[in-house]
UniProtKB/TrEMBL annotation:
Domain (Peptidase M12A): residue spans on this chain: 60-256
Single GO term (MF): metalloendopeptidase activity
Biological source species: Pavo cristatus
Protein name: Metalloendopeptidase
Any Pfam family the entry gives: CUB
Domain of life: Eukaryota
Residues annotated as transmembrane: none
Length: 370
């Protein structure tokens, strides 16, 4: 009993030091409420950086091998998920859609939970929050109906569950941002820095894991985080995983996956021949309007049915989405491709023989079209 009391006291004390915000002054609504103080799953859990719950002794961010989800023999890291039926069907499919992007672009596969013991339960929360990494058993991720249902906000919380901390908590963050402590009163604990494993990948202002400039500000209109040297660099986007977010998941989980969030793009080594046995995916994501995809150059090995080397385009964010352009090969030009949705997936594959110079492509949002 004495130990329990001590534990509770200890946890409480720790939590006090990391008081968290009840204001939703942030664009990304990455806000945790005091509710955690009352509903701690056990005293080994502590609130940290606003929306992450940590197990005691695991405060070194992504520097924690045992926090990772296991990889199965097929090279996939399966993370079973059950989305609470408290969400509407539309919300559940929106959440599933945000998770599908991760499944498409990395070797992490979110799968519907059947009987797995370790899994993520996505629940309607009074705050947006997650545990850090895999904790074992059922672990909740909280999403607020109008608070963190943006695609990037959902991915943000799931990224915590995969083992990622906030970008501005990286060990090297002081080279990239200045924390404006004078504008942060109650929630200084959310702006801590940790001894993180940075995976040899650069600091990313456009990460979904980065706080926005005004998050947790105690003075309206005054920023809490200012990028250096250029204070105008945008931070805190929640439209979806950045290119580096994708690369970091693949690196942390040791996936050999060729996939990117696209702007303009080309086959590997273009205009030199692409490699044999290449397989790459580019996800194009826009907020609204149509996507006009144009191949400015195109030269792939010709084969019957394009079964050897090909480009294939999907309207959506997975290889099971509707096909816009079926396997295509040979020498271009290709007509431009118009997609009516907000995501398009481009797949390129080559087999083990004969390569060519490949392709270069770009897209625009088609602002001036009917
Ligand atoms: C907090 O968010 C809710 C819902 O998004 C909104 O109705 C409310 O006005 C916000 N409160 C503040 C203080 O911004
Ligand atoms: C998923 O969660 C719901 C409650 O929202 C529960 O009724 C159902 O049994 C769970 N399913 C699985 C497979 O865990
Ligand atoms: C997962 O379950 C949802 C319903 O909750 C269903 O719509 C979806 O097709 C399932 N996905 C897979 C891969 O079975
Ligand atoms: C692809 O493989 C063939 C032989 O299988 C080889 O001749 C060719 O140089 C390879 N191409 C590249 C780009 O590696």
């Amino acid at each position: 009993l004495l130990y329990t009391l001590f534990s509770i006291f200890h946890t409480f004390f720790f939590l006090k030091m990391f008081t968290i915000s009840m204001e939703n002054n942030s664009q990304n609504s990455d806000v945790a409420l005091n509710v955690h103080f009352l509903h701690l799953p056990d005293s080994e859990i502590a609130v940290y950086e606003g929306d992450i719950l940590l197990r005691r002794g695991q405060r070194s961010a992504i520097n924690c091998e045992s926090c990772l989800w296991p990889k199965s023999l097929d090279g996939l890291v399966k993370v079973p998920v059950n989305i609470s039926s408290d969400f509407s069907l539309a919300e559940r499919s929106w959440i599933a859609d945000a998770l599908q992007e991760v499944s498409t672009l990395t070797c992490v596969k979110f799968v519907n939970r059947t009987t797995e013991a370790d899994y993520v339960y996505v629940e309607r929360g009074q705050s947006c929050w997650s545990y850090f990494g895999k904790i074992g058993g059922r672990q909740a991720v909280g999403l607020v109906k109008n608070g963190c249902m943006d695609k990037g906000a959902i991915q943000h919380e799931m990224n915590h569950a995969l083992g990622f901390i906030h970008e501005q908590a990286r060990s090297d963050r002081d080279k990239f941002v200045k924390i404006m402590w004078e504008h942060i009163t109650a929630e200084q604990g959310n702006f801590g820095k940790v001894n993180s494993k940075n995976l040899g990948l650069p600091y990313d202002y456009s990460s979904v894991m980065h706080y926005g400039a005004y998050d947790f500000s105690s003075t309206p209109g005054k920023p809490t985080i200012v990028p250096v040297p250029n204070p105008l660099v945008p931070i805190g986007q929640r439209e979806g995983l950045s290119n580096l977010d994708v690369a970091k998941i693949n690196k942390l989980y040791k996936c050999s996956k060729c996939s990117k969030i696209a702007s303009s793009f080309s086959s590997v080594n273009y205009p030199s021949p692409y490699p044999n046995n290449s397989n790459c995916l580019w996800l194009i994501r826009i907020r609204r309007n149509k996507i006009f995809l144009q191949f400015e150059a195109f030269d792939l090995q010709t084969s019957s049915d394009c079964s050897s080397d090909y480009v294939k385009v999907y309207s959506g964010n997975s290889k099971s989405s509707p096909v816009l352009l079926d396997k295509y090969c040979g020498q271009g030009p290709l007509p431009s491709i118009v997609a009516s949705g907000s995501t398009v997936l481009v797949e390129f594959a080559s087999d083990e023989t004969v390569t060519a110079t490949g392709f270069r492509a770009s897209y625009n949002r088609g602002m001036n079209t009917p």
